[in-house]
Design brief:
Rossmann fold, 6 strands, about 50% helix, 8 helices, alpha/beta, six-stranded parallel β-sheet
Length: about 180
């Protein structure tokens, strides 16, 4: 695999190093941004895969290992070195892409937890049936987060959360997130 991988990545991905990383994060914009921040705080060695070349360019300028790629492509997936990978997280919304990613990990690296994203309960159930370790459902988690805010109805609590939320919105907007 090593000879083919180096040639594949240097040809397609402009010479980005192909060494394996502890965490493979697929998708950076929006959710992936927060996940990457947490992984960096935990001092995890992360490789970000994103389809958007602008996102990849920004990440590289910030010295974040990143590569432009389609996690729904078997050709792309077969070129990734997973030897040190301990966790895979996909914030990619496509059910088909997530199934392909999950199946690839089940074939190549069976014991690695795979966290995927679903846009519906039906897709989440199907991903769990396929073997996903956890499925992120943005609307479900958003509602759950608001329910936690409701534990303290005080204005002070909401003002505090409002400030931090507005700060994050401004930061993400400056970074070009939607």
């Amino acid at each position: 695999m090593a000879n083919g991988v180096a040639g594949f990545f240097s040809r397609v991905f402009y010479g980005v190093p192909v060494d394996s990383h502890e965490v493979l994060l697929c998708g950076h914009n929006r959710m992936g941004y927060h996940i990457l921040k947490k992984l960096q705080k935990l001092r995890k060695n992360v490789m970000v895969v994103d389809w958007n070349p602008e996102v990849v360019s920004k990440l590289r300028k910030e010295n974040v290992a990143s590569v432009r790629g389609n996690v729904g492509s078997q050709r792309f997936l077969s070129g990734i070195d997973l030897s040190a990978t301990e966790l895979c997280i996909s914030t990619v919304p496509s059910y088909k892409d997530n199934v392909r990613l999950l199946r690839h990990f089940k074939n190549e690296k069976k014991n690695v937890p795979v966290i995927l994203t679903a846009q519906s309960f039906d897709d989440a159930m199907k991903l769990y049936k396929e073997g996903a370790h956890y499925v992120i459902m943005p609307h479900y988690l958003g509602g759950k987060h608001v329910s936690l805010l409701m534990e303290d109805f005080s204005v002070k609590n909401f003002v505090s959360h409002r400030r931090s939320h507005l700060k994050e919105i401004v930061i993400q907007k400056k970074r070009g997130h939607m």
